[in-house]
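Sample intake — Glutamine--fructose-6-phosphate aminotransferase [isomerizing]
Collected from: Brevundimonas bullata
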Amino acid sequence: EKGAYRHFMEKEVHEQPDSVQHTLSEYLDLVTGAAKTQAIDFAAVDRIQIIACGTAFYAGQIGKYAFEKYAGLPCDVEIASEFRYRSPALTPGTVAVAVSQSGETADTLASLTWCKAQGLKTAAVVNVHTSSMAREADVLWPTHAGPEIGVASTKAFTAQVSALLALAVAAGVARGRIGADEEAALVKALFEAPRLIAEALQMDGQIRAIAQDLAKATDVLFLGRGAMFPLAMEGALKLKEISYIHAEGYAAGELKHGPIALVDEKTPIIALAPLDEVFEKTASNLAEVAARGGPVIMIAPATAPAPHGDGIRRVDAPDCHPLIAPLVYAVPVQLLAYYTAVQKGTDVDQPRNLAKSVTVE
Ligand code: F6R
């Protein structure tokens, strides 16, 4: 039931403080401030191979950044439809991790089965705990988003990201990369995510105003660095799916290698710019875009310094630890797609040509 909400997507976006909290509690202990020990001994793992499709693939890419940064664990992420048909070269110490809301996506399931047949250890980050992937994998890493009705994935995505970030911290501890103090600090940061997601939901009014303009655009660019790069691609996918506006997500540093040619006064550029170690780099990319007449919308904390250039509109996001920025910034990205679609009058919960679960290739 949608209750007071107009669409399931809107309801599911607003459920995220709870679904993230619930998912994090699976992997982390709020009371002791420790990451729970996992069925897979991360100290004995050489590499992680994540396999997924669509939004789950972007969650996987965010996971990669965390596994490498916090656990020093090499991690590859691949689209399942490519992985399964290209004869990937995998080494024995690799754990294959399927990421999927439904646990039934044909290409992801086939990739998982193939990895298992190769003798690899397998795990599945899935939201439907009775699904084929949940049964097939050696280890089930559940997400607790609850049933997701909207075809465009929202709360399942943030649940996947929550699980992967928490697992990256667990891996860092198991591999001796993270000491007790850092572990407590990272666990605390993760448990702040539900409150900060709730705060991000208050950006509603600002986002609605931006969506009025986005609805008039034919092309939109999303930019980000670090974990904001996969989130930029997720933002572009969400906008495409439900508003049918052409959008692309790019790594901000790639801009000058081609996409900057697309910049004109009609193409809005949405920048995801939390105050992290690469903020200054992103800000200087935005100044370059603004200098070329591109209308920039910078989503950043109010405390972040302003980049040079006219025509940069700011949307204030909550201040947060860089680890949880993908969870907090997912909210404005989802709301932007949602309000743009509502403004255009498209069928938000049932976008044309899309099915909730892709069980055929
Ligand atoms: C996008 C979306 C899809 C799914 C993809 C994988 O909003 O929902 O891109 O993420 O089809 O589905 P699952 O996670 O069920 O494997």
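Post-analysis note: The pocket of fructose -6-phosphate is lined by residues 53-56, 100-102, 105, 108, 152-153, 237, 241, 357-358 (CB under 6 Å).
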